[in-house]
Amino acid sequence: MDFVDWMHETHRIADQPLRAALAAAEQGDAEACASAARETALFYLRRYLEVVGDEEAAAGDSVACLLEAAARHDPYFERLRAEGELLDAGSGSGASTDDFVDALKEIRFLAMARAGKARGFSIEPDESDPRLDKLLTHSTPVDRACSIFAQGAIVSFNRCAQLGMLSGLPVGAKAWHNPRRLLDFVMFHIPDNRYCAGEKVANSQRKGWVDEALEDDYQPSVRLFFRRAEIETLPGFDDDGLHQFMVRDEVSLDLIVCAVFPSQQAREEALARVREPERRERLAARCLIAPPDSCADPQSYVRATNEMVAKFL
Question: β-strands 246-248, 287-289: how paired?
Fold first, then answer.
């Protein structure tokens, strides 16, 4: 079984206790939430330990102990010690249902991400463009790109909420079960031609629901390109073992290498929102427009715009 099938099977088996934890949280039942969250976290950690061949440790019945065993194989698990202790303590800890659910989300995501790493799961080498190896992208819907150009920075969800720019929960927190702390970060990804992750994220944000297939009402994103080395040296940069490229709070738009817009109109709308004439002029020189015939589907859009960026460099 390849890793993607293994991952789907894992999520399918864990679906019932996960939903039980979420339902108990909605009902405010701390005891039931803590119990279901702990059961689900144990399952995900056992699956990880099975992948790395540590079946003896996988037989344990303590989240903290399983995390300690996992950390012997992968030090990223050391970051979750407090979450393991919280789930083991259960409702007697006095923690809220949100705390229990968040601890589960942290363990769930890291266990799956590091299991993939242990099994050698990665983007196929022939699906990446070596000319873009030193770049990262941030993809966003056109309306949010206009807000970014007006703000002069890509801003995290929580910072946007503080500024009154957004409300409610983003689709990642609602549907992808992202931990709360991720709302403090701006996320980046590699400009791959195969998975088109940025297009999936941007269209899901636009629609308000997860759309992995992008077969209905696909709209190309605005793709902002940055140098990986510059992102990694920013003060707010963090590597959590899951989202390897993330920066706390905000990233200045002045750092972009270039931006690709799906249309001339989108480009003009974004640039018109830039307040400072000198910054507008600098950004205009870096703003490209995708070929119209590439905008029908995500793979052709990503491939065509990656080629544009490679030539621009």
Answer: unpaired
